[in-house]
Amino acid sequence: MIQEPIYILTVLCGLIFISEWLTKHTFLRHISGPLLVIILGAVLANFGLIPSASNASPVYSAIFSYVAPASIFYLLLGVNLKQLKKAGMPMLVAFVLGAAGTTLGVIVALQLIDYKTVFGAHYAAIAGMMTGTYTGGSANFNAVALHYDIVREGAIYTGIVVADNIVTAVWMLVTLSLPVFMMKFRSNPVLQMKDGDKIDAHTEREHVGPLRLGLMLFIGLAAMFVSDKLAAISDIPSVLILTTIALVLAQWRLVQQIPGAKMLGMFSVYLFLVVVGAFCEVTALVEVGEHAFNILLFTVAIVLVHGLFLVTCGWLFRTDWSIIAIASQANIGGASTALALAKSFKRSDLLLPSILAGSLGTGLGTYLGFLVAGLV
């Protein structure tokens, strides 16, 4: 029954409702909605109540392929390019430093395990895969894996995917709490944009009729269709094209103020995050065999070195901790999770920088992954 699409969608939407209700009406109000929805998704998946990573449903693939990009598009409709004047460069610098930390992490992680025994002749390709995925998300991971045909390596590929899913989900929780935690030790200045809340304002009772809803869906779906077609005939990632279209439209005041666009975008983000939680399958790693611990250690070490390197840079350069957290999430999880983090922090001024950093990671991660694979 848990593989039936209607059942899966029912549960996922129910988890979003439950997480929002709990964060508004119970003692869990101190936990953000994105954090709670990831936890709920992980709990249900590990208890077998919804599909997990090892028996993933086509519904999950559809959410990753269509819902996640839609969330980016709709939330960007309320963003003005003036935000780049103050937040653009700090986010870009933090992202580049995070990518450097990822590369350093891969090198360090290889030294912690007997990588030739664990990964065999594929260790260089796997180093490139992990560099790519922790520079800008899973699209880079898959690109490198397909090129080196690692997808046919059964247990190794499965182990890496499961470890990656677990670490990515956990790192989302870490970055959600990072600014508050680090402010206790070092109160770095907060880079706050003017009119940020005004740009991103939305309410639970936005009035959206069939006319405006139809227009909103038409614009979003048309933008995604055009992005995919242009990406197919060029070397430009679809998410970069979609981001560009959204930014152009966002400069039109009429489009920017479409009622319900941001609410629809945020719901899409929640739907994406609950699937991220469902992919956090702890028990599946046991099936990998004797190398499961080493694979998990390898993956954790990469992210920890990345995180420590980026936090150290934030400490030295006194960078806004929210920017550090979002840049890190743009590296580890990609544009959608970076956007969710900015939204969770109630930093509407950082919505655009988070997407640009994530898009940059999608564009550069594959190239950096192939570079590291070649050097290793």
From TrEMBL:
Keyword Cytoplasm: no
Superkingdom assignment: Bacteria
Keywords, sorted A to Z: Membrane, Transmembrane, Transmembrane helix
Transmembrane segments: 6-23, 35-53, 59-79, 91-113, 119-143, 155-181, 209-226, 238-255, 267-288, 295-317, 354-375
PANTHER family documented for this protein: DUF819 DOMAIN-CONTAINING PROTEIN, PROTEIN, PUTATIVE (DUF819)-RELATED
Name of the protein described by the UniProt record: Uncharacterized membrane protein
